[in-house]
């Protein structure tokens, strides 16, 4: 039992399972063949399967795999003859008649190995195609010489048939390899697209932090200056108790340390954003598609049924990707949160007189008239958690700050039964122009 357990464990290893699969499929495919009426040749699909496996599968060893394929093919063919086609007393004839398959696969594997065709996927080049063609032709010729006399083989018609059928086999192999490589490329492109979208979302969140830290730098500078001025004034007063003077100086020094740490963090965030800016320009439509996709997932996580619509009257190329993405994400996520269970969010993009207008509208909970003058102030919020804790109320203030950095403005309007936030910014400020 231990021996069988070890054998099973060995056979079930990933690499060994691949080899076994290649052997089984190749052996079965050898029974799918074309027999020519003119020449003494038999061309099977097994060649296509075997060579494709060598070219495409990682870590498949050519010679050991060929040995297993060759002798498995011999056993299958002799077994079929023994049980179905020929009288059993012709067993020696069966073996002698069918061992040409062993010669074929062993010679083909040897030529591929000597030619430096190793395991793993490779690009199909003209040199590789010609080499594969030569290897298949020589292997087919060797198998034919085992089966029949050379007189029947070396005729012009038969040699043409051999070359043509070998070319068909190589064509099928290269076609399969190219198709599989194309599919892998599509998968990789899709993975890269998804990774890039995730990177953009993360980068826009980093930009949020960067924006606020840059705003905080002004406060840090003011606190440090006030603390130092307080120290100088206390020093000029020449008080008997100089502890206040020293405390003011310590506060200024500590704030200065905080300033240096903040500068380092800002520099790190700035470098991170530069590193992540692999794609320097995106179309506005691409950014909006990403915003909708992200917030659709967000609304689903909140168990809300929200329909999204998008109308773009003029698409633009955007260089300032992260701040614009941050603006749109904040406005759309606010719209998602304003909708109770079901609703509609639609975005409209217009460009008039070089001014880009972005409309983010929803039919969620309306904003009360008395709150309209406060909505863009830091700390304003109408959102509370399940425990009754209010949100920070900096989302719209943050959006306003970003928009003003673009020399634009954001306004609130009620249009019919919907509430709309309208962002108006110069088109050149996001597209790299002035």
Quick structural overview:
The chain is of the alpha+beta class.
Offer a few descriptive terms:
single chain, 434 residues, alpha+beta, Arp2/3 complex 21 kDa subunit ARPC3, Heat Shock Protein 90, 3 domains, five-stranded mixed sheet, two-stranded antiparallel ribbon, 14 helices, 64% helix, elongated
What does this structure look like?
The chain is of the alpha+beta class and 434 residues long. The protein has 3 domains: 2-189, Arp2/3 complex 21 kDa subunit ARPC3 (Orthogonal Bundle); 191-276; 282-431, 2-Layer Sandwich (Heat Shock Protein 90). It is 64% helix and 12% strand. It contains 14 helices and 9 strands. A 5-stranded mixed sheet has the order 4-6-7-9-8. The protein has a two-stranded antiparallel sheet with strand order 1-2. Strands 3-5 form a two-stranded antiparallel sheet. Strand 8 and strand 9 form a beta hairpin. The longest helix has 82 residues, at 156-237. The relative contact order is 0.06. Mean pLDDT is 76; it is low at 7-12, 275-279 and 383-394.
Strand and helix layout:
Elements: H1 2-11, H2 14-29, E1 33-35, E2 42-44, H3 46-56, H4 62-85, H5 91-98, H6 100-114, H7 126-147, H8 150-153, H9 156-237, H10 243-276, E3 282-283, H11 284-301, E4 305-312, E5 317-318, H12 321-338, E6 342-352, E7 355-362, H13 395-405, E8 409-415, E9 418-426, H14 427-431
Parallel strand pairs: 4-6
Antiparallel strand pairs: 1-2, 3-5, 6-7, 7-9, 8-9
Helix pairs in contact: 2-3, 2-4, 3-9, 4-5, 4-6, 6-7, 7-9, 9-10, 9-12, 11-12, 12-13
């Amino acid at each position: 039992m231990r021996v069988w357990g070890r054998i099973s464990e060995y056979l079930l290893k990933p690499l060994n399972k691949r080899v076994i699969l290649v052997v089984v499929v190749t052996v079965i495919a050898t029974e799918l063949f074309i027999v020519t009426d003119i020449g003494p040749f038999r061309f099977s699909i097994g060649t296509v399967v075997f060579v494709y496996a060598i070219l495409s599968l990682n870590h498949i060893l050519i010679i050991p795999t060929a040995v297993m394929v060759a002798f498995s093919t011999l056993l299958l063919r002799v077994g079929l003859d023994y049980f179905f086609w020929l009288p059993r007393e012709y067993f020696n004839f069966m073996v002698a008649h069918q061992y040409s398959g062993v010669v074929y696969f062993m010679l083909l594997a040897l030529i591929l190995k000597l030619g430096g065709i190793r395991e793993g996927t490779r690009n199909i080049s003209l040199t590789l195609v010609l080499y594969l063609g030569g290897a298949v032709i020589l292997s087919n010729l060797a198998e034919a010489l085992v089966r029949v006399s050379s007189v029947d083989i070396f005729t012009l018609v038969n040699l043409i048939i051999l070359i043509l059928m070998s070319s068909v086999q190589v064509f099928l192999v290269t076609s399969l390899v190219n198709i599989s490589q194309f599919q892998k490329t599509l998968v990789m492109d899709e993975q890269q697209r998804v990774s890039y979208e995730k990177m953009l979302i993360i980068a826009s969140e980093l930009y949020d932090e960067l924006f606020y830290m840059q705003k905080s730098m002004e406060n840090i500078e003011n606190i440090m200056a006030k603390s130092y001025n307080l120290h100088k004034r206390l020093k000029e007063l020449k008080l008997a108790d100089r502890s206040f003077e020293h405390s003011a100086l310590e506060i200024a020094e500590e704030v200065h340390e905080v300033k240096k740490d903040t500068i380092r963090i800002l520099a790190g965030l700035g470098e991170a954003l530069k590193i992540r800016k692999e794609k320097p320009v995106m179309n506005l439509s691409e950014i909006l598609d990403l915003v909708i996709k992200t917030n659709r997932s967000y609304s689903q996580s909140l168990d809300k049924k929200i329909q999204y619509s998008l109308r773009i009257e003029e698409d633009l190329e955007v260089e300032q990707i992260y701040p614009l993405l941050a603006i749109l994400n904040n406005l759309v996520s606010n719209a998602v949160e304003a909708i109770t269970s079901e609703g509609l969010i639609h975005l409209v993009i217009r460009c008039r007189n070089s001014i880009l207008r972005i409309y983010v509208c929803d039919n969620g909970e309306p904003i009360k008239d008395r709150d309209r003058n406060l909505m863009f102030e830091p700390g304003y919020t109408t959102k509370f958690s399940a425990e009754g804790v209010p949100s920070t109320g900096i989302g719209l203030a943050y959006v306003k700050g970003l928009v003003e950095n673009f020399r634009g403005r954001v306004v609130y309007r009620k249009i019919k039964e919907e509430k709309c936030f309208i962002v108006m910014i110069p088109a050149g400020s996001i597209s790299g122009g002035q």
